[in-house]
Amino acid sequence: MYDFSFEITYEPGVDEYVDLFIDRGSLQSEATYSCLDPAELWKLESVTGDAADLAAVDELLLDESVDRESISGRTCRAARTTSLLTDERRRRVTYTYLTDVDYCESVPLIAAKYVDGGALFEQTRSGDTVRWRVLVQDDSKIGMLYDTLSARLGEGRSFSFEHLTEVDRWESELLSRPDVRAEQRETLLLAVERGYFETPREATLDELAAELDEPRSTVSYRLRRATAELAKRFADQRS
Amino acid sequence: MTPDTPTDDEQRTPTDAAGGDGYPTDVLVGPDWVEARLDRFRADAPDLRLLEVDVNASFYEEGHAPGAVGVGWRTDLRSAEAHDILSPAEMTAFLESCGITEETTVVIYGDNRNWFAAHLYWQLAHYGHPDVRIMDGGREYWVEHGYPTTTEPVDPPAVTYGDAPDAPAKPEVRADRTEVRAAIGGDTEFVDVRLPEEFRGEVTKPPGSDEGAMRGGHVPGATNVFWAENVRPSGLFRPPAELADVYESRGITPDDDVIVYCRIGERSSLAWFVLEELLGYDHVRHYDGSWTEWGNMIGVPIEVGEADGGG
């Protein structure tokens, strides 16, 4: 399996969806795409961020006339449906389905024309940058895909190749689970739920300890262990 | 969807009906022009022949314009005897195998907005075939806009070319490495049509490809005009005023001596076609050795990073 990774960087004003990520720094998006037939495409997108920033995204996320797929200067000609699967304070998950595609210059649909047997697509958005990882079994058409994708970019977008490597370890955030022990997870979830991590804190360690019926020192220790594990995993994924 | 119901007015322009959006139809025809003549392309009589040449060779088998002869760039457009374009004898044999005589109007199209269609056009210009044209928009435009396609094989009747070339009729459309080296530092404008990251020297070959060079960068003094700037998002060539501005805004004008190049000489064929045939520049040469030659040679000057702003 090969990993073809590249970034597309957007100038402000060329893509209304990207503009939101440029203007609102807390927003992050992860999406996975599936496309075997160049006439249809589906994706799951998870957007996280501060509540106010997420509220600003809602309108665009669910507006089926907004083209979040095309990388070129022309809008996809296809039928699009979007539904909201998760609606939390700091997270939205949407499902988008494109069908009857006459043309749509999105990364997965262009790739589907070149790569036989399908590919997996992972996309992350942050600020002005959209990062793509395309996983393929065979890399023989990747050179063509590189030339074609880079040429389809509309004005105000720039292409930067990162790597083409054979995959021998997995670092994806989409499929990973932090290794937090069950009692630590229980403590952590309660702490988040009660607002322990809010500023200012909405719960004290003593209150959490009382609710869990554990000594304060035990609760404190579990929270430190859990956050340390998450922090290390976070750093590993970015190194 | 039918071709005559566009949703966005950029998609269907006078190009299609007139065959070239104000460009001369003896070099550029629109898909409507081709569609109206499909029966003649398919006929045994060799007046008109349609050729499809794709970067991705498997596209042709998935469907092509009825009557279009499939051309493989790796097998048909490169010399079997040397690392070079076709020799005169090879070119004649290739044309005869496509049912083309010296009287034939040859129309070429292909994927990636006509990369290799332009390359074949340039080779035919080099050898002086009298009538050759490109179909605007290429394969993608044809397929995306619902023009007819078929998977039927096309086997044109064998013909004799006629007065076959034994040498290039227009050697002035080609530049070799000696000419390139001699032109550095002079008045010649070098146009490098590769991606900015290739121009700057950060990428020396496309991922997963063996079309590489030992050194990255560009010919000293070259201007980076990415090839895709010649076409609109739909794949049609930009209209004349816009297209002229792509070059003139960078100080490259019709009376300049120009040499174009890319990585293996296909994308720069498109730029050559634009400058020579669509914009009527006086003297445009195509350095088909391009970066796979220049970036692998010993002792030639190379510039890296952004252009220095010089000509």
Automatic annotation (TrEMBL), chain A:
Record domain HTH bat-type: where: 183-231
InterPro entries: HTH_bacterioopsin (IPR007050), HVO_2928_N (IPR056529)
Start and end residues of each HVO-2928 N-terminal domain: 3-170
Transcription listed as a keyword: yes
Alphabetized UniProt keyword annotations: Transcription, Transcription regulation
Keyword Cell cycle: no
Record protein name field: Bacterio-opsin activator HTH domain protein
From TrEMBL, chain B:
Keywords: Repeat, Transferase
Alphabetical list of CDD domains matching this protein: TST_Repeat_1, TST_Repeat_2
Domain Rhodanese: 44-151, 184-303
Matching InterPro entries: Rhodanese-like_dom, Rhodanese-like_dom_sf, Thiosulfate_sulfurtransferase, Thiosulphate_STrfase_CS
Keyword Manganese: no
Full protein name: Sulfurtransferase
Organism for this UniProt entry: Halorubrum californiense DSM 19288
Region entry Disordered, spans: 1-24
Pfam families cross-referenced by the UniProt entry: Rhodanese
GO molecular function: thiosulfate-cyanide sulfurtransferase activity
